[in-house]
């Protein structure tokens, strides 16, 4: 039981700092997904949102803003979902 408590505490300490900016990424993803889906499907009804994906590592040429990175990925996914 003691090992489980230590493992859970360690996991919590490792995951918490990594998820600090996930909120901005997911907010951007949601806005981008909805906007692209509604535009591509030519509808005013908002789609059912898929779960927010993990934020990919930023590479050369990627936006510095987590929100903008999420928005661009959401636009790609929303457009593809509307054409299925």
Estimate the mean pLDDT confidence: 83
Helix count equals 3
Order of helices and strands: HHH
- Structural class of the secondary structure composition? mainly alpha
Query: Could you tell me the number of beta strands?
Result: 0
Q: Note the main sheet.
A: none
Helix content: 55-70%
Which consecutive residue ranges, at least 5 long each, have pLDDT under 50?
A: 7-20
**Radius of gyration using CA atoms only:** 17 Å
Query: What's the shape?
Result: elongated
Strand content: under 5%
Distance between the termini: 48 Å
Brief description of this entry?
With about 80 residues, the protein is mainly alpha-helical.
Structural descriptors:
mainly alpha, 64% helix, 84 residues
Architecture overview:
The protein contains three helices and no strands. The chain is mainly α. Helix 2 (22-41) runs parallel beside helix 3. Residues 7-20 have low confidence and may be disordered.
List the helices and strands and how they pair.
Blueprint: H1 2-18, H2 22-41, H3 66-82
Helix pairs in contact: 2-3
